[in-house]
Amino acid sequence: MRVRSNRMKGLSACAATALSLALAAGCGGSEPDSTDGRITLEFLSLAWQKESVDANKALVKQWNATHPDVQVKYVQGSWDNIHDQLLTSFEGGEAPDIIHDDASDLTDFANGGYLADLSDYLPQSLREDIPQASWDTTTYGNGTYGVPFLQEPRVLIAATALLQQADVRIPTAQHPWTWGEFEDVSKKLTRDRNNDGTTDQYGVAWSMKEPVAQSVNLSLSTGGQIFYKDADGKNEIRYDSADSSVAQLIDRQVNEDRTAPKNGLGMSGSDTLPGFFAGRYAMLPLNFSFRQQVQQQAPKGFDWTVLPMPTGKGEPTQGTIPQTLSVSQDSRHKRSAVDFIAFLTQAEHQLQLARGDWLLPTSTKALKDPSLNTDTYGWKTGAAVAAGLRPSPVLGVRGYAEWKDKIATPAYQEFYNGAFGIAELRERLADDGNRILDRYQR
Amino acid sequence: MSTTSALPKVRVLRIAGRTGQYVALLGFLVFLAFPLLWLVSTSFKSPQELGSINPKWLPVDPGLGNYRAAFEAQPLLHSALNSLIVAVSASVISVSIAVPAAYVMVRYKTRVSQAGTVWILVSQMFPFVLVIIPLFLVLKNLRVIDSLVGLIIVYVVWNLPFSLWMLQGYVKSVPRSLEEAAAMDGAGRLRTLVSVVLPLLAPGLVATLMFSFVTAWNEFFFALVLLKSPENQTMSVILTRFLGAEGVADLGPLAAASVLATIPSLLFFALLQRRLVGGMLSGAVKG
Amino acid sequence: MSLTASRAKAVPGSRGTPPPRTPAQRRQALGLDRDAWFLLLPALIPILVLSVGPLLYGVSLAFTDAQAGRTAATQFVGLDNLLDLRHDSLFWESFRIGLIWAVSVTALQFVLAMGLALLLNQNLRFRWLARTLALVPWAMPEVVVGIMWRLVYHSDAGVLNKTLGQLGLLHENVDWLADLSYALPAVIAVGVWAGMPQTTVVLLAGLQNVPHELREAAQLDGAGLWRRFTTVTWPALKPVVLAITSLNFIWNFNSFGLVYVLTQGGPGGQTRLPMLFAYEEAFKYGQFGYAAAMGLVMVAVIAVLLTLFLRKKLKEDAA
Questions:
Q1: B11-59 pLDDT tens trace
Q2: Contact between A78 and B243 (Cβ < 8 Å)
Q3: Signal peptide location in the record (chain A) (predicted)?
């Protein structure tokens, strides 16, 4: 016994020494900027497609040429690991000045005090060019923690030849299908072409590897939102018929009508493409930027069309989580950082960045640009649908990530697989879910 | 192995046994190596072929487009060089300091050795994610963030538990009689280690070295959070640049870059595998 | 903890018997003479600063309510996290999955790697090539491994379904990674595949230490293959086997990166490994304290299992 306690004491003494060394030095301040008054800002960008990376770099170059005193250093990040990278560098006090991310990450980062409130720095022209619905995605309490600049709706990508064969009405952004019509069309598009008794062409493939965000965002189209505020302004999950009708429709298509294949449920968006090109699936609900992959991989002579998502009533509405530009709270040059962001998000620059990654800009001016209003690759459909984009209800909800991983993802996966009915789904999402949200709102 | 007067039956059995061995080996290799074939084949396929529902083992219309795209998009050669510097330094340093330490831990049974064993196991058991932030702070204070040196230091320490643990096993298998003989001849502890123990450890050293090299070569998270400047990035971080949001991958160029990332480790194996075959120990015992 | 306890008990007063030393080396500190300290320090110092320090800091978080962010001050909460964890049924469910995963992967890895190592130790043709190819899974970066296997398991365009279909074993495409009952076995297969090379190399190196003379002598005595293996090879290899198997077990229990790329813990939480839980708790929800408590529980459970597994080795060490 004595042996052990001595050893423990020794170990903790060593650790204490090491730690105190670390902490003492950790409080040391940052180094001053170079003496000539020139400052350097780090810009962590998540541009992905080559065109978009090039556009970003060109804009940085242009800025550096015209702003000799505020130089911007381009640092490339990756969507795959941005959250972990940022959290570590925030905690370590080494975060980049200008941060490209998406609005869903901002909730916790803003709450943790890592991000600067940009309200005082944003130029009026920028505020007016981006619609209020977009600003709402990055505003918590009284602060605005990011500039929403790129966004994408979910759309239906359909095989043109199969649509023509089935002789269905082609929907437009002004006259989209209702969900009921969509169900009928899916039935028409589901066929057993070689008459062997098994379906070899499905109306639609729902890729549900990550089911939560799409299920929540599409619930807006039927007047639902899943995340509500109660009388005290606290977040609360409700799952009534308006919230659940799209999920029930998907369940019907997979498990009753069999107009959607069960094996699509485990796929990511990209996984559904081979089957789409081979005529196995007639329509794919995918994010707007997937058009790049479709265009790149489609076999020669394969025609495809971009259609708006169906809607419950009135104009097509859905939730969206835009990409954002934020400034680190630790940055000592917040004004200059915001100036650069404002430069990057001017209408014509937004346009370049958006087109490079096959996304839509938030800028109302940029959305009117002729290059976004062509029929080629369905740009026009996207630009028209953009007016119906609303902040995803999950934004600003603390505890959403935990609810999503622990409750919603498994619950939706099992529900769509037919493991249980809507009553149990509601119980899990709302009853179990609210327990998690409550922990974050004590 | 002298079988001059072998009976036919024994001969047949032996040939059957040999064939069986080759078949089994082939089975293992197919299982272990087919993804490499797949990767190489993918790297030569066009985007249209990658979107096909009937993938072929060999590209229908092979081309270098993916390699060109990968090289244009990312600084592959430079990052490979960074990875090489880091992996070689880290593996050599960690093995060099692990050998003497492992020797002491085996030959002296003290509290220090015991604490060492406990540390080795606990350090491998405790969630790595909770150690990252304090470690990051220590490195920040040593002013080695955003430098390859810092990364090398981390990898050395990170490889030590495995190196120590495995080398202990190998040291134990060195017969103590040999050391005693050397001590009798008047050799000091250090000389005994260098001239008697070290040569006998060769296969174990090579295995440990390989391990440290590959771990460092493939490590991703520390490289991601420690290195910021584009000129310092390592290969494993560069590879994730071919991944977009929601699991979308730029498959062709990713495969091309991965082939390039896999080759150095395989070359390293091919060169070192000979050393895994020691046979030195048996000779030493005989002598 | 039980690890240290059993060791402490087994060391009453003696400190083992180092081999004979010269009088000059007798001056000691903590049972080590000057030469020994000289050999130990280069490893010890970096370990203390960069590993033991951060590790103890991480452990200490388990008794606080530490969270990501600078808005909330961290407070000492004693055993609250551990008490909360007791009722966290999702965590214990993932713990069960983690044990199934770790035990199956470790066992299969060992059996297959042992077979492969024995084959590679034979004097076969193209042995160098075989040895190199056998290490392929190890040389491939983890992200790529995950993506490659996703392609293999792909339900529409995957090689596995295609091959099984051609052999007539399968009539309808299976979605291996999304099927509630196949997902765990499917990721276990990938885990075994990915971890085999390390084990093989270590065992192969260990086999080299088995004295040839003994094997030949046994052969001359007319011992069969199996007898030779159990009486000569196995005893010499055993320390290496114990060392690598126990490490493999720890690693497998603690791994989640590969499985995360493959399934993200789905379908329906069937492949949510406990370390994924701790990772998400810490990095996604920012609950450092609670995650550290999970870590501590995992350390304790693994330690108990390892003590059972290694009890003989520990006794021998201490003797």
A1: 888 888 888 889 999 999 989 988 888 899 999 999 999 888 888 888 9
A2: yes
A3: 1-24
pLDDT, tens digit, for every residue of A188-238?
999 998 888 889 999 999 999 899 999 999 999 999 999 999 888 899 999
User: Do B257 and B217 have their domain in common?
Assistant: yes
Question: Domain residues for B53?
Answer: 8-63
- For residue C122, which phi and psi values (nearest 5 degrees)? -75, 165
Phi-psi region of A223 (alpha: psi -120 to 50; beta: other; left: phi over 0): left
The owner of tokens 């018929």 is A241
Strands A39-45 and A98-102: parallel
- Cβ contact B237:B227 at 8 Å: yes
Per the DSSP assignment, residues forming a β-bridge with C28 are C33
C304 Cβ contact partners less than 8 Å away, ≥ 6 residues apart: C2
Q: What is the residue-wise DSSP string for B25-55?
A: HHHHHHHHHHHHHHHHHHHTS-HHHHT-SS-
Residues 157-216 of A with CB under 8 A from B: 209-210
Integer Cα distance of B224 and A126 in angstroms: 33
* CATH code for the domain in which residue A377 is found: 3.40.190.10
Could you tell me if residue A142 is inside a domain?
yes
Say if the Cβ atoms of C211 and B281 lie within 8 Å: yes
Is there a domain that residue B70 lies in? Answer: no
Chains that touch C (3 or more CB pairs under 8 A): A, B
Q: Do A75 and B50 touch (CB under 8 A)?
A: no
**H/E element, A305:** strand A304-308
Tell which of B141, B232, B235 to mutate to test the A interface (max A CBs under 10 Å).
Answer: B141
Strand partners, B104: none
pLDDT digits (tens, 9 = 90+) for C170-225: 878 888 998 888 999 999 999 999 999 989 988 888 887 677 777 677 777 777 77
Q: What's this model's pTM, rounded to 2 decimal places?
A: 0.87
Report the CATH number that the domain containing residue B257 is assigned in CATH. 1.10.3720.10
By DSSP bridging, strand A281-287 and strand A202-204 are parallel
**CB contact at 8 A, B154 and C50:** yes
**In 10 A of CB B61, how many CB atoms?**
9
A402 lies in a domain? yes
- The three-state secondary structure class of A118 is coil
What's the number of domains chain A is made of?
A: 2
CA dihedral angle for residue A230, residue A232, residue A234, residue A235, rounded to 10 degrees: 10
Residue A73 lies inside a defined structural domain of this protein:
yes
Contact B239, B261 (CB under 8 A): yes
Q: What angle do CA A165, A168, A172 make, to 5 degrees?
A: 125
Within-domain flag for C180: yes
Structure tokens at C103: 């035990």
